[in-house]
Amino acid sequence: QVLDGAGLDVDFHLLSPKGETLVFDERKSDGVHTVETEDGDYMFCFDNTFSTISEKVIFFELVLDNMGEDEQDQEDWKKYVTGTDLLDMKLEDILESINSVKARLSKSVQIQTLLRAFEARDRNIQESNFDRVNFWSMVNLGVMVVVSAVQVYMLKSLFEDKRKSRT
To answer: Where are the domains of the chain?
Structure first.
């Protein structure tokens, strides 16, 4: 997401480890992309060469799902459990609940981070609009002062006696 800069747009490229273009967005202000991955190094690039004069502030988040979660790691706890099937079932339910809460909490953190980025972008736009309104208000005030001074001068000149008085 582009937070600040002229036009609030940027080009985005995502390349696979084989060098294939997976995603190419031209002049977008924000976007969400989901990609099925394979082993290797991916390359992504935010390109602002079309706008060489203005710089951009970019927010991006890389979310890797199922990283480091092996089925083996989740099943290791079972070898320490002794007892009846009822106890085993309850522990599985607890583990499932904990994993569900963990996933939801992670999603909440991700959404809050995204909302903070939207807020930052909107604040930058509001500050820019505030500065623009103040500038044009000052220009308007200056024009009004000049016009009122000219009107007073013109009105005063209408009532001046232009005849030469002889005494």
So the answer is: 2-90, 107-166
Residue 2 C-beta-side C-alpha neighbours within 13 Å: 22
Number of Cβ within 10 Å of residue 121's Cβ equals 19
- What's the start-to-end Cα distance of the chain, in Å? 83
DSSP 8-state class, residue 17: T
CA dist 17 and 40 (Å) reads 5
Tokens 């890797």 sit at which residue?
A: 64
Residue 13 CB burial class (10 angstroms; 0-12, 13-18, ≥19): middle
Query: Could you read off the pLDDT of 40-64 as tens digits, one per residue?
Result: 888 888 888 887 777 888 888 787 7
pLDDT digits (tens, 9 = 90+) for 23-43: 888 888 777 778 888 888 888
- Residues whose CB falls within 8 Å of the CB of residue 35, separated by 6 or more in sequence, listed in order: 14, 22, 23
Bridging pattern class, strands 57-58 and 21-28:
unpaired
Predicted TM-score (pTM) of this structure = 0.44
What SS3 state is found at 4?
Answer: strand
